[in-house]
Design a protein that fits this description.
CATH architecture of the largest domain: 3-Layer(aba) Sandwich
Shape: elongated
Structural class: alpha+beta
CATH topology of the largest domain: Beta-lactamase
Number of strands: 23
Length: 634
């Protein structure tokens, strides 16, 4: 069968005498091959169509998206920090400005052995290797081509050590950055505040929306309160980099907008005088303009250098800043709470006159003590003041006189007038952390101690002792209200803000006019308790105060008593008596007597203000020349 088929498919031909068998053409096989070629062409066409479709999807439909991703890989944006706004005093003098500083950082992409680099860099910067590691870990999400700052505001010594060894420290860079400068030193650091690296908690707040990890932002005081205005708006630099992260070229630069300047009502001369007078003491000074509540000076001692927070606080510095006795970080002007002592007698005198429990001529006899039941309350003067009227009681600060007023008024009426003079509540100054002090009442004691109020506590209350607590800024506002006729202004530190009148003290105007001569006598009278505050050519009114820290039974002679157990010294004053323009409150912790410790500090502040009011020599010459010229032409 097979042989017969082969015969059909084959034929023989004779070529040059040779027979050659020819295979017969197979059309079926040809058809199969043609079919395979068609399938292959169809497959190639489909592949081509699929490629074209994919190209259309990538380049047209998703073109913009992938272009952006491509640029993200090759184009980087470097943020340019703005210069922080300046802080100026009332005359436009620079208190806190900006200057170039040097930061030392590490670019991780250029570092082969990080641990090796840390061990060599740490001693040059007087840092521990752990400190550097923590900074690197904190910035782990930062691009590797950007420097991680390990030392801000490097000193010249640190900078020279690093610069001399840069060739040995691959990845270490030195960059110039703006930092805070203080031309007059650390002036009013508690009021101005300080800068520090932004925290994660702050980054979540709207106030820090323009900040990024590693930025220096306000941490306290005015720097924190006005962070948005001072910080400015960031710019950027658009750069092109290669696959290894190296800079190819700068494509675009948008300059940052510097922060706004802030001008304070603070007078630099008066502020420096307050800080100088407090330099070796612990306490606070607040000076206000009684006409509008503007802050002329606010000092808290001991003070601190705000620059250390920007570069990083050392362990020794942090230990010193947290000294529990001196508390340098506490703004004692608004956070220190003290018994007002005899400065509270201003309130007592006003309340007694307004409630008609005394008149200006009312007298009480002082023999050096006051007996209530079986208990005896002493006057500060052992021999007593004798027959005493209101003028004498204020000038010589007779305790017995005010014991009598206190019992006649009672605790609740005393508290009413204490609150009426702005005590026991925050003044509203626009700085974080202000304390409210405490004005006690019967209900308060019952709620707090589950005990009824005692008459003996009223006696202590009447001379500013016991539960009563005030802040220096509250005392400054109190004496300002006496000076201006009873107006309680909110203390303001910005120069160009309108006065904010919060209330009027609850006494008749004639009462304040009645006690002012006595307050003047505190300084000018030969028996006054603040004779050390006298300034020739200037009339000053004021009141001293001494607040006990420990109970009378435990007290010893001052020279034998430990510093922390000594009395606080207080003094409030305003000047000139006619048309007052400055009011001052001083608290000296454990300073002793108000007249000997606090009054001289107030005198230094008022004296500096008084000298600023005097016409300059050139002005005097010009005025004299004008007068002479007027006489000639007259």
């Amino acid at each position: 069968m097979k042989k017969s088929e082969d015969k059909k498919n084959n034929s023989k031909i004779k070529v040059f005498g040779t027979k050659i068998r020819l295979k017969r053409f197979d059309y079926k096989e040809l058809d199969q091959r043609l079919r395979l070629v068609t399938y292959a062409r169809l497959f190639l066409f489909l592949c081509f169509l699929l490629i074209c479709t994919r190209l259309w999807y990538l380049q047209i439909l998703k073109g913009n998206q992938f272009k952006a991703l491509s640029e993200k890989n090759s184009i980087k944006y470097i943020r340019l920090q703005p210069y922080r706004g300046n802080i100026l005093d009332c005359s436009g003098r620079l208190i806190a400005g900006v200057e170039p500083s040097f930061n030392i950082g590490i670019v991780l992409k250029d570092v082969k052995n990080v641990e090796w680099l840390i061990e060599r860099l740490a001693p040059l910067l007087q840092l521990s290797p752990t400190d550097i590691r923590m900074k690197l870990v904190a910035s782990k999400n930062q691009p590797s081509y950007l420097p991680i700052i390990v030392r801000r505001d490097a000193t010249w010594e640190e900078l020279s050590k690093v610069e001399a060894r840069l060739f040995e420290l691959p990845g270490v860079v030195v960059e110039v950055a703006p930092s805070r400068q203080y031309p007059f030193g650390p002036v009013a650091p508690h009021l101005l505040g300080y800068l520090g690296e932004v925290s994660l908690e702050q980054l979540r707040q709207k106030k820090f929306a323009n900040s990024r990890p590693g930025d220096l932002v306000g941490k306290s005081g005015i720097e924190l309160r006005h962070q948005e205005e001072l910080s400015g708006i960031s710019g950027y630099k658009m750069i092109e980099i290669d696959a290894r992260g190296r800079l190819v070229k700068v494509l675009k630069i948008k300059k940052p907008q510097p922060g706004k300047d802030i001008q304070l009502s603070l007078n630099l001369d008066i502020q420096l005088a307050a800080e100088e007078a407090l330099s070796d003491k612990v306490g606070a000074v607040v000076a206000l303009d009684p006409r509008n509540g503007k802050i002329l000076a606010m000092a808290s001692s001991p003070k601190f250098d705000p620059k250390i927070f920007a570069r990083g606080v050392t362990k020794d510095e942090w230990k010193e800043l947290n000294n529990p006795l001196l508390t340098p970080l506490v703004n004692k002007a608004i956070q220190g709470q003290y018994s007002p002592g005899s400065t509270f007698k201003i309130v007592m005198a006003s309340a007694g006159l307004n409630e008609h429990v005394i008149s200006p001529s009312s007298t009480f006899f002082c023999n050096g003590s006051f007996k209530l039941g079986r208990r005896r309350f002493r006057c500060w003067k052992k021999g007593g003041h004798g027959q005493t009227n209101l003028y004498k009681a204020l000038v010589q600060s007779c305790d017995v006189y005010f014991y009598n007023i206190g019992l006649k008024l009672g605790v609740d009426r005393i508290s009413k007038y204490a609150k009426g003079f702005g005590l026991g509540e925050k003044t509203g100054i626009d700085i974080k952390g202000e304390k409210s002090g405490l004005v006690p009442t019967r209900k308060w004691k019952l709620r707090r101690f589950k005990e009824p109020w005692q008459k003996g506590e009223t006696v202590n209350y009447s001379i500013g002792q016991g539960f009563l607590l005030v802040t220096p800024i509250q005392l400054a506002r109190l004496i300002s209200a006496v000076a201006n006729g009873g107006k309680l202004f909110r203390p303001e530190y910005l120069l160009n803000t309108e006065p904010n009148l919060q209330g009027i003290v609850p006494v008749k105007s004639w009462i304040l006019r009645t006690i002012i001569p006595a307050l003047k006598g505190v300084i000018s009278d030969k028996h006054g308790t603040a004779r050390k505050c006298r300034i020739e050519g200037l009339e000053i009114a004021g009141k001293t105060g001494t607040a006990q820290v420990i109970k009378q039974k435990k007290r010893r002679e001052d020279e034998k008593m430990a510093w922390r157990y000594k009395d606080h010294a207080l003094f409030v004053a305003f000047a000139p008596v006619k048309n007052p323009k400055i009011a001052v409150a001083v608290v000296i912790e454990h300073g002793g007597h108000g007249g000997s410790a606090a009054a001289p500090v107030a005198r230094a502040v008022i004296d500096r203000w008084f000298k600023l009011q005097m016409p300059k020599p050139s002005t005097i010459i010009e005025q004299t020349a004008q007068k002479e010229k007027a006489k000639v032409h007259g």
